[in-house]
Amino acid sequence: MKLRHKVLIVDDEPQIRRLITTALARADYIALEAANARETMERVRHERPDVVLLDLGLPDRDGLELVPLIKGQCDATLIVVSARDATEEKVAALDLGADDYLTKPFDTDELLARLRVALRNRTTRGGASAAVIAGDVAIDLLERRVTKNGEEVHLTPKEYRVIAQLAKFPGRVITHEQIMAQVWPHELEHHVEYLRVLVRSLRQKLEDDPQRPQIISNELGIGYRLRMVGEPQS
Amino acid sequence: MNDVKDPDRPSPEALLRAAAQEGRGRLKIFLGAAPGVGKTWEMLTQGHRRREADVDVVVGVVESHGRRETEALVHGHEVIPRRDVSHHGHSLGEMDIDAILARHPALVLVDELAHTNAPGSRHPKRYQDVEELLAAGIDVWSTLNIQHVESLNDVVASFTRVRVRETVPDSVLEQAEIEVVDIPPDELIERLRDGKVYIPQEATRALGHFFSKSNLTALRELALRRVAQAVDAQMLDHARAHALAGNFAAGERIVVAVSEQGHAAGLVRAGKRMADALRAPWTAVHIETRRDQLFSDGERRQLADTLALASRLGASTASIPAVDVVDGLSRYAREARATQIVIGKASRSWWFEMRHGSVVDRLVRTLGEVAVHVLPSGTPDKPLRAARARAGWGRPLDYLWSLLAVAGMTGTGLLLEQAINLGNIALLYLVPVMFAAASFGLRAGLFAALSASLAYNFFFLPPVGTFSVSNPENVVSIFVLLGVAIVTSQFAARVRVQADLAASSARQNAALASFSRQLTASTTHKELMQAICAEVARLLDVRSVLLLPSPGGPQLHAAFPPEDRMEQIELAAAQWAIDHEQPAGRGSSTLTASDWLFHPLRTSRGVLAVLGIARGDAGDPLRSDNVPLLMSLLDQAAIALDRMALEEANLKAQAIGERDRLRSALLSSVSHDLRTPLTTIVTAAQEMKRAPSAELAETIESEAQRLARFVANLLDMARVEAGALPMKPEAIDLFDAVASAAHDTRAALTDHAIDLDIAPDIPLVRLDPVLLHHCLINLLDNAGRYGDAGTPILVRCRRSHDALRLSVIDQGPGIPPGQEKRVFETFTRLEGSDRARHGTGLGLAIVKGFSEAMGLTVEASNIEEAPEGKRGACFTIRIPETLIVTAIDQKDMT
Known about the structure:
The complex is a heterodimer. Chain A is α/β, with parallel strands linked by helices. Chain A has two domains: 6-124, Rossmann fold; 131-226, Arc Repressor Mutant, subunit A (Orthogonal Bundle). Chain A is built from eight helices and twelve strands. A five-stranded parallel beta sheet of chain A has the order 2-1-3-4-5, with helices on both faces. Chain A is globular, with a radius of gyration of 18 Å. By secondary structure, chain B is an alpha/beta fold. Chain B has four domains: 12-241, P-loop containing nucleotide triphosphate hydrolases (Rossmann fold, 3-Layer(aba) Sandwich); 254-391, HUPs (Rossmann fold); 393-499, no CATH class; 725-890, Histidine kinase-like ATPase, C-terminal domain (Heat Shock Protein 90). Chain B contains 28 helices and 26 strands. In chain B, strand 2, helix 3 (68-75) and strand 3 (78-79) form a beta-alpha-beta unit. Classes of the chains: A alpha/beta, B alpha/beta. Chain A binds chain B through residues 86-88, 105, 156-158, 184, 191-194, 196-201, 204, 210-213, 217-218, 220-221, 233-234, and chain B through 708, 726, 728, 730-733, 735-736, 739-740, 743-744, 756, 758, 760, 764, 768-770, 773, 885, 888-889, 892-894.
C-alpha cells in the first residue's frame, strides 16, 4: 500500500483551507488544518506532518517567525504560500529554512507539482543520491561528473560547484547568496553578475537551446532552481 | 461757531468713499486756521451727539491743557488710558494704539493729528497711528491746524515767519472728510487775550507775532481754500468714477527738478500745490551727474529725504543719470511729455554762471514749449557745502601723481633740449596735463597745466632758473601752453565723466540683467527665494532675508548669508510692512528701532513676501544712491515670485485635473473590468450548482484569471502613482528576464509563438528584476492581444553605441498614426478594430511608469517590413549605457 503523506495547511482563511483540502484529498494526501500560529505549533508537535503549507499572514504571529520554529520541531518540508510577493520576503523565508515558496494566487496543479518535488527530495535526503537527472543531463555528485546524453561535459571548477549546489536540492529554489557562498567561499561580498556569467556559460554547455533554458531556471531576484523534467517553472 | 456743513447729514463724498473703501474706517478732520478756534471743543461736542445716537465713541487722546470746559466735555466720554513711554527719564503719555485696537470702538476721537510721538513708539507720527486705526476699520475724528499741512508749510512760514516742524502729508487730508472750525480773527484775538487759548510757555513770544490780525486772516483764507480744494477733489473723484472725464485739466504734467540742497523740499511742496491746482500728475526727478559721486553722506540723505517727501505728497520719483543737469532734465521732460517744469534758482556765483551759462536760460532755450517755473531758493546749509567742496578737490595723491608726471616730462625735456626747439617742448607738456585730467579729473588737470607752465618757464625759457621771462614772445607761448592745457584738460575731464557715467549706468544695467538672469534660472520656489536674497545681498552689499506672510506671522524662508531666526522687533516690522504694503524698519518711517529695513514685494495680488536688508555694522542698510536700484530689484523679484506662484498653481491645477481624469477613468474601468468577470463567475457558479459542467468551470477559471490580472495591474499602477517603487537593482541576464515573462504570460499567448532575436553574448543589465518582469509581461500581453492570431511575437535586442534596445514586436494592425504617445496614458484603449480587446487599459501605463522609475525610456512605433508586407506595433525599452554591466573580471570565473 502506498504511503500517504500528511500535509498541514496553515491559513487563516477557511475558504482557502477548504479548497486546498479538497485538492489534496483528491491527490490522496492526508490534509490537516491550522488557522493560527498556536494551532500550527500544536499540530506540528503532535501530528508530525510531512509537509507544511505555511501562509505568512497569520492573526497571532508573523508567519516568517514560524519558519525556524517549525523546522526546529520536525523535519517536515516547509512550503510558504503567501500573497506577499516582495522578493525580500521570499529570500528571507528561504534563508530562514523554508524549502519553497508559492505566491497567491496559484493554481492547484502547480501546488501539487511542488508538493511532489518536495516529497521526493525528502525521501532522498541524507541518502546522498549518487546521480541527479535533469532532462538529458546527469549530475553525479560522488564522481563529480556531469554528462549530457551520456557524454561527459567539461566544466570549470566554479561551474561545477554551481550545478552541484543546485543538484543537491533538485527542484528547489537556491538563493543567490546560498550558491555564491559555496562558489566563492572566501569572498566577503558577493556580486550576482559573476554568478549570472557562470550560469550563462553553464547553459551554453548543458542546455539544448541556451536562449530558452530548460534545466537551470531563474527565480526573479531570488535564485536558481534545477528543473526536473515535466515540472512547472515557478 | 459757524459750521460749513451740517455735521449730521452724511456727505455724499463720504458715502462714495465708504463704498470704495469697504471695511476701512472713515477719517474726519476738524480743521482750524490757528490754535484756539475751538476744534477740540467742536469734536468733543459732536462726539457727544454721536454718543447719544448710540454710536460707540471713545476718546483716544485729548489734550485739555487744563481748560475746564474741555475737561468737562471729555468727562462724559469713555477715555482709553494713555500708555507710558519713558524717554530720557521723562514719562510721556502717548495714545495707546493697541488698547484702542483691542477695544475696537466704532469711533475714536484723536486730538492733534500732527503730533509727533515719543521716541520708541510704534510710529514716529500720530497720523500714522490714525492710519492704522482706519485700516482696522475704526472711524477716527481728529483735529488739525492749517499750518501743519505739508504742502502749505512753506506758505505759512513765509508770512508768519514761524516754521512748523510737525506736518501731516496732504494724502491724509485727501482721504478725509474735512470740517472747518472757524471764528473771525477779532474774536480769536480776544480769546487769546482772555487766556482762553493754550500756548506753550516757551513759544509765547513767537506766537505773539503769529496771532496778528493779518496772519490770522491769511491763515483763515488758506484753511477755507484748502477745504474748498478738498471738496473739489472729491467732486472730481466722483466725476471720474462716473466717467464724466473731460472737464479737468487734461494733459498737464509737472516735473519738479530736485537737487541735494536743503531748499529742494520747498520746490517739492510748490510742485504739489501746482499739481493740486492743475489736477495734474507730477514727478520729482533728480538728475544724477558726476557730482553725485562727490556727495557727502549728509547730501545723500538730504536728497533721499526730498524724494521721499515727494513720494509722500503723491509724486512719482525718478533718478536719471546724465552728463549735465540741463541735458538730463530736458531729455526727461520730453520723454515724460512734461508741460510744466519747476526748478530752483541756484545760488551760484556770477563766475559760475559765466562759465557754465545759467541752467535756467539753457533750459528755457532747449524746451521752448514747456513752462519753466523758477523758484528762489534759500541759502544752502554751510556744512553741506564745505563737505562737498572737500570732496570735489579729490585726493592729495592725485595731485602728487600729476606733479610727478609734470616733473617726469620736465626731465625728458631737459634730455631732449638740444635736439628739439623750445616750442615743441611746450607741446610735450600737454602729455602730463592730459594724463592728469583724464585720470584724476578737471581740477588735477588744471593743477597739472599750471605746474607745467611754471616748469616750462623755470627750466626752459631764458633766463633759465627764474620765473621771469626776458623775451616777450615767450610770454605768449606760456599763455598758449596754459590755454591749450586748460582746454585739453576740460575735454579730457569731460570724456572721463562720460566714461564714468556710462560705466555706472552699465554697472546698474548689468546688475539688473544678472539679477533677472539668476531669477529666471531658478526652477523652484525655494531656489528663487534663495537667489533673490543672494543677488540683493551681492548687488547692494548688504545682508538680506526673505519672509513670507503666514497666519502665525512672517516666516523666514531664505537668507543670505544664512540666518536662522529673526528678533521679535524685526518680525513686527516685517508684519507691518506686509499689513500696510509699505517699507518698515530702519531707515523708513515706521518701527525704526529694528536693525533691518523691510520692503514688501507687491503685485496685483497683494504682498507676496517681504525683503529685509541690513548692514553688517548695523548702519543704515541702504545708501540713497542705491534706492532706484533696490526699487527695480524689488519689482523684478516680485514679478518673478508672482510668476513662480502662478506656475506652481497651474501645475497643481493640472495635477488635480489629471488626478480627476484618472479617478473617473478608474471608476469606469473598475465598473467594467471588475463587474463583467464577476457577473460571469457568479452566473456560471450558480449554473454549476444545478448541472456541473467542465465548460462552465473553464469559464469561471478564465474570468477569475482575468480578474487576478486586473487586480495585480491596479496594485502596480497604485505603486507607480504613489511614486514609491521599491528598487533593488541587480545584474540581470535578459534571457532569464524574457524566459520568465514568457512563462508567466503563457496562458494569454497560446495563439502566439515567441521568436528571440538576441545575441548570445548580450551584456548583463543592472535593473530591478521585478519591475523589469512586469514591464515585459505587459508588453508580451499587449502583443498577444493586438497581434493577429497565429503570428509570432518577436523579442529583439540591439546594442548601439550608447544603449541597449529591447523591443517587443507583434504582427497586427499596429498603432493608429499619431497615437504613439497616447498609448502609454492610463486607461487608454485605442479603437480601430472591432475585435474584442480584453485589456485593463493599464498595461502600457505600467510599462512606462516602471521603466521611468528604473531610468529607462519607452517608445511605441509601427514597423513595416516591405518584402513580406508584415506590419505591426513595436514597443521598445531603451536601456542606457550606464545601466549596462560591462566589466566582469574573468579570473573569478574559473
